[in-house]
Amino acid sequence: MTASPDSDALAQRLETLGLPRGSYIVRPHDRLRKVIAQRMTESARDIPHFPLTMEIGLDALLAARADHNAAEGAAKLSVNDLVVKASALALGDVPEANVSYVPEGMLQHAHADVAVAVAVKGGLMTPIVRAAETKPVATIAAELRDLADRAQRFRLQPDEYSGGSFTVSNLGMFGIASFGSILNPPQAAILSVGAARRRPVLRDGKLVEESFMAVTLTCDHRALDGATGARWLQAFRALIETPVRVFA
Q1: Is 221 a catalytic residue?
Q2: Which residue in 19, 167, 183, 188 has the fewest CB atoms around it within 10 Å?
């Protein structure tokens, strides 16, 4: 245990929980972990969360991405880049979902300012792609690479990770099938993206194998009702399954 004025009191308290001295070490929380703990506790305690989960076909998006990435001189795109662009477009299609609740009224955001969860040493940061609905997906991809790199080196400016109107959190690269997230205030929604998985589907009387991903939209029930969240997910699914606008 690291030395501190209350280390003995802490040890005594942990002993009452069945953790004897010498069975652990105490690593003091750094500033980032303290901020995350405070904000997530407040969010989970004070905001009425509800989740909506939908399964979305990926074959068309993956095929279009492969064609794009194979083109000479094309900027390489990740699935997450495309998810961010589709999220922004869906917020434009369903502007009722691009809001934030404050006691004085509902904030209707002028743009889809999409934050993206990035794992950093000791925690998580959420750099923001501003007005993502207005940007080509290649521009979004370049911004995300720069933001993620600087986030991991703790070189972001406060206005690059504060605010935003929506968050995307993708754990698909870790093989997580589906999950739900805690809201990132003052945002009213966060999209949790799971891994692509192939499964058999019956199409025109034939059994074929297709790729799907599960996404969960966690909503602030003060700002969004279930029907609004469902309409946003329908708009998002349409953009992923028929991705012409995502690549435009």
Answers
A1: yes
A2: 19
